[in-house]
Specification:
Order of helices and strands: EEHEHHE
Strand order of the largest sheet: 1-2
Helix content: 25-40%
Shape: globular
Number of strands: 4
Largest sheet: 2 strands, antiparallel
Distance between the termini: 30 Å
Structural class: alpha+beta
Strand content: 15-25%
Length: 95
């Protein structure tokens, strides 16, 4: 099964800190991710019922399902079906 996140902006494949993404402007993504990683972050744990669901975690912490890609990138998760297990420690950037 493939996971399609909300960060589908373009047609260029780019790498940023060991992540591969398809984006329209790879330089802008790199600048944005450096900005996000420099901000304060919370530590949280994946609660029961939210495992393998970055969209639900995004809604829980940001009030929107569209930040699922951000949670995956910051926590170095490529496949949500393998990551975001119950009790996993995750970083939540304050945006």
């Amino acid at each position: 099964m493939n996971y399609i996140n909300h960060y589908n902006l373009g047609m260029k494949i780019t790498k940023h800190k060991d992540k591969t993404m398809v984006v329209s402007n790879p330089r802008r993504l790199a600048i944005y991710m450096d900005f996000i990683k420099a901000r304060e972050q919370e530590i949280a744990y994946v609660p029961p019922g939210y495992e393998h669901r970055p969209d639900l975690l995004s809604y829980l912490f940001y009030g929107s399902v569209t930040k699922d890609w951000l949670l995956m990138m910051v926590n170095n998760i490529v496949d949500p079906f393998q990551g975001f297990n119950v009790g996993d420690r995750i970083l939540i950037p304050k945006i």
